[in-house]
Design brief:
It is built from 15 helices and eleven strands. By secondary structure, the chain is of the alpha/beta class. α2 runs antiparallel to α3 and α5 packs parallel to α6. The mean pLDDT is 97. It binds glutamine. Glutamine binds next to loops.
Length: 487
């Protein structure tokens, strides 16, 4: 049977578009038809609008035929996580608070992609305000894992990972504060990159924890992730934390030659709390990479055990401050029938936010309060320094660090909703990377007995996305990479 257009990778489609073998309109229709076919089961999208997407596709086709469209993503449909602002298109953060919020400006990444002629395929589901690891915290619906519809896709960018995995988007954008790109990528068997802090503009990303948040790409192969990262990375004067430096094309410089590359294996990421099958799959992968010329050494990251506590203190502290803006006055939801201003604030925030968001605002407010600041927030910031130091010490002797992405494969929907600590444990392998501001990619590296994907995380030095993607590419060639879910 003929392969459908939505099944191709972005880098292949890019060539087909340029050679005029296909049009962006055909491709966009194929992707949206696929969404129509499976999204009532998967629930990845919060919004699709065929008319809007086709208009962008027609534009792309014009750009391509005029020869003006140099960017490689011209004409490619991209799914966007719903916390990335899109002019004229609702951006809900999967919250009741922003149910009807329509931004009047684009995030910088959206400006870049639309200038490149890319097509927005729709807005993707997520945990409310990116807080969660399963998309069960979405106000609207829970996204399902395309490999097993009774399991979660991971989170918070679960919609992005699931859409890419089952062909409802060719590639997608997510955001990662403590693992929200890598963990869902791992659970849905796709590739997800959390870029170095500062390399992708956060302008227009609705803030959760500003010092940790990064936008990043999802794809079904390493090349697609490199292509999308090429398009979105770069300095932006609208983001004060954006790094002003030279960015080179990751796609053009992708190389599978890993001879001499030094891989560090931290024992702290392979022990307690990590399912033995997951650890085994990662170690198998590393052995294969060793055969291809890499060398392996053990490294030590002794503060790893404290990382989750430090992360949840820092992230909640920043969230409590960032979410203060949702007060019923400036944006979105406002409660009815209020008795004065204070009552309006209280009712609006009680009704507009979900349980997890409220829990984090309370936690964050508590750790920042005068009596507890030193005991919690200050300690967490000290730990952050220590974790950063341990990584930079490790990177003196190795080029990359390899760990599992998630301690287990996808879990059942409903299993962890009433136990926030069990949910938080899903991030045990990923939060350190945000705390240290490093880049890391998750690639599929094996499957459970019931066919659910496992992920391997490759962590790099600051701004060394190239090396981790090269290793990811070598791994993909050795292991075959993405497997399509039967859906
Ligand atoms: N799951 C983590 C949390 O709930 C990470 C979220 C994220 O990266 N946005 O905070």
């Amino acid at each position: 049977m003929d392969k459908k257009l939505y099944e191709y990778n972005a880098y292949e489609l890019s060539e087909m578009l340029r050679a005029k073998k296909i049009s962006s309109v055909e491709l966009t229709n194929s992707v949206l038809d696929r969404a129509e076919e499976v999204d009532d089961k998967v629930d990845a999208y919060l919004l699709t609008d065929r008319q809007m997407s086709l208009k962008m596709a027609e534009n792309a086709d014009k750009l391509i035929s005029s020869g003006e469209a140099k960017p490689r993503l011209a004409g490619i449909p991209i799914g966007i996580k719903d916390n990335i602002s899109t002019t004229g298109i609702t951006t809900t953060c999967a919250s009741r608070m922003l149910e009807n919020y329509v931004p009047v400006f684009n995030a910088t990444v959206i400006d870049r992609l639309t200038a490149a002629g890319s097509v927005i395929s729709g807005k993707l589901n997520m945990d409310e305000f990116a807080m969660g690891s399963s998309t069960e915290n979405s106000y609207f619906k829970t996204t399902k894992n395309p490999f097993d519809l009774s399991c979660v896709p991971g989170g918070s960018s679960g919609g992005s990972a699931a859409a890419v995995s089952c062909g409802e988007a060719v590639i997608a954008l997510g955001s990662d504060t403590g693992g929200s790109i890598r963990q869902p990528a791992s659970l849905c068997g796709v590739v997800g990159l959390k870029p170095t802090y500062g390399s992708v503009s956060r302008y227009g990303l609705v803030a959760f924890a500003s010092s940790l948040d990064q936008i990043g790409p999802f794809g079904r192969c390493v090349k697609d992730v490199a292509l999308l990262q090429d398009e979105i990375q770069g300095h932006d004067k609208m983001d004060a934390t954006s790094a002003d430096r030279k960015y080179t094309s990751l796609y053009d410089n992708l190389s599978e030659d890993i001879s001499g590359l030094k891989i560090g294996m931290p024992a702290e990421y392979f022990g307690e709390g990590i399912k033995p099958e997951v650890a085994e799959a990662v170690m198998n992968s590393v052995r294969e990479l060793e055969k291809r010329g890499a060398t392996v050494a053990s490294v030590s990251l002794p503060s790893t055990g404290y990382a989750l506590s430090a992360y949840y203190i820092i992230a909640c502290a920043e969230a409590s401050s960032n979410l203060a803006r949702f007060d019923g006055v400036k944006y979105g939801y406002r409660a009815k029938d209020c008795d004065g201003l204070t009552d309006m604030y209280e009712k609006t925030r009680s009704e507009g936010f979900g349980r997890e968001v409220k829990r984090r605002i309370m936690l964050g407010t508590f750790v920042l309060s005068s009596g507890y600041f030193d005991a919690y927030y200050k300690k967490a910031k000290l730990l952050q320094k220590r974790i950063q130091q341990e990584f930079s010490d490790a990177f003196k002797s190795v080029d990359v660090i390899v760990t599992p992405t998630s301690p287990s494969e996808a879990f059942k929907i409903g299993d962890r909703v009433s136990d926030p600590l069990a949910m938080y444990a899903a991030d045990i392998c990923t939060v350190t990377v945000n705390i240290a501001g490093l880049p890391a990619v998750s690639v599929p590296c094996g499957y459970s007995a019931s066919g659910l994907p496992f992920g391997m995380q490759i962590i790099g030095r600051k701004f060394d996305e190239q090396t981790i993607l090269n290793l990811a590419q070598a791994h993909e060639s050795a292991f075959g990479g993405f497997r399509r879910p039967k859906l």
